[in-house]
Amino acid sequence: MSKNKGFSRKIRLRLEMCSTCMKMCRDNCPTAIASCSESFTPYIRSLNVNLNEKGIRPYDEGALDSIFSCLTCNLCNTFCLPKVDEAELMELARTSIVESGFDVSKYSRIGESISNYYNPLREDPQNRINSFRDLIPKDNDAETILFLGCMGSYREIEIARASIELLNKLHIDFTIMNEERCCGSPAFRTGFLKSALNVMNHNVSEWQKREIKTIITPCSACYRTIKSFYPKYLSDFDFNVKHMIDVIKSKLDHLPLKTLNSKVTYHDPCHLGRGMDIYDEPREILNKISSIIEMDHNRDKSFCCGAGGGVRANFPELSRKIVDLRINEALNIGVKYLISACPLCKNQFKQSTNIGTLKILDIVELVNQLL
Fold first, then answer.
1. Residue 10: enclosing H or E segment and its boundaries?
2. How far apart are CA 261 and CA 279, in angstroms?
3. What pLDDT, on a 0 to 100 scale, did the predictor assign at position 2?
4. Helix (H, G, I), strand (E, B), or coil: what is residue 361?
5. From the CA atom positions of the chain, what is the Rg in Å?
6. Measured between alpha carbons, how far is residue 176 from residues 118, 144, 164, 180 in Å?
7. Which residue, among 80, 90, 160, has the nearest Cα to 314 in the 3D structure?
8. 45: closest CA among 24, 59, 28?
9. I need a surface site. Which of 149, 158, 251, 367 has the fewest CB within 10 A?
10. Which option is the CATH number for 256-370: 1.10.150.130, 3.40.1110.10, 3.40.50.1860, 3.40.1030.10?
11. What are the tens digits of pLDDT across the range 247-266?
């Protein structure tokens, strides 16, 4: 087994700070709460990396489980005074582990899927646009592209169709790329950097060939990855990246939206909220439709849906416990609608057995229905 590649002094200091602090974040970590296990807490994850880095305790299966069970939701960072950014630390650790020759076959499903199928769902890439082909603009050389993402293309088709219909209603000239591949977010988060860079380079190359200027997406993970991660690896990245929320918000004062006579709550996706600091805009949109009742965990304290960071693929039972905790929060405040702004969050909520009469919708679907 190869030794883990060394980290910079700055990264080692952040690991040291996390692994030796007062550990207040563990009471807020979704994996720690759902598992009731100290191994699945932020500071134990950092401690495992720190001990390996110092040559004191090499990685074993327990340490790897700890590291790869992180949702990378970064809820712990909300409660971390020095802001060590545990999510980034775990992404760096996973990448180092993968590239150092450790046996990561237990955690490699997502990386392999993106390498072989260009999506994490192992779907035939030739079928990516089949479910909404009838809505795609024909012979369109628009400078704006709608990037639907894998979950919207293969699972939450209603979000993909609603996004297309809504852009048409808003008279926005756009096109859709038949050759769209995964944005790379699942691979970035789980440490499979080569897989992530492969799909990233393909997407950017296609956008450049088509002379695309603006990228719109309904997926929070795609939005954050394309807007924040792509420029880290590409010196010539020159695109205007928008979430569908940006588009809706820019037109909000002139949209004849119907009101909804039902109580709603909003779930902040980790990528959109803590990842991109977007909290007010979706609430401004929803407040024009109905009054929002907030869950106990909201905004920067929002509880993760339990699907991120490869956890749903690698630790399905843990993932189910986490989503049940979040669904229970919505049920406890007596709302009829649970609204989010991420296809993965919506799909994860539907996995819960506790939903009852709670209606799960994406904000794009809701706006499209009421316009």
1. helix 9-19
2. 23
3. 44
4. strand
5. 20
6. 17, 9, 9, 8
7. 90
8. 59
9. 251
10. 3.40.50.1860
11. 999 999 999 999 999 999 99
Residue 271 tokens read as 């990528």
User: CB of 33 within 8 A of CB of 69?
Assistant: no
| Predicted model pTM | 0.93
What integer pLDDT is reported at residue 4 of this predicted model?
A: 53
What is the Cα–Cα distance from 86 to 92, expressed in whole angstroms? 10
Of residues 343, 333, 339, the one with CA closest to residue 359: 339
Q: Which DSSP category does 132 fall into?
A: G
Domain ranges of the chain: 9-107, 114-249, 256-370
User: How far apart, in whole angstroms, are the C-alpha atoms of residue 240 and residue 177?
Assistant: 17
Q: Please state which CATH number belongs to domain 114-249.
A: 3.40.50.1860
* Domain covering 9-107, topology: Fumarate Reductase Iron-sulfur Protein; Chain B, domain 2 (1.10.1060)
Q: What is the pLDDT of residues 304-317, one digit of tens each?
A: 999 999 999 999 99
Q: Are strands 264-266 and 337-340 parallel, antiparallel or unpaired?
A: parallel
CA atoms of 67 and 62, how far apart (whole Å): 9
pLDDT for the residue 6? 76
* pLDDT score, position 5: 58
DSSP 16-44: HHHHTS--GGGGT-HHHHHHT-GGGSHHH
Distance CA(22)–CA(85), nearest Å, equals 16
DSSP 247-312: HHHHHGGG--PPP--S-EEE---TTTTTTT---HHHHHHHHTTS-B---SS-GGGPPP-S-GGGHH
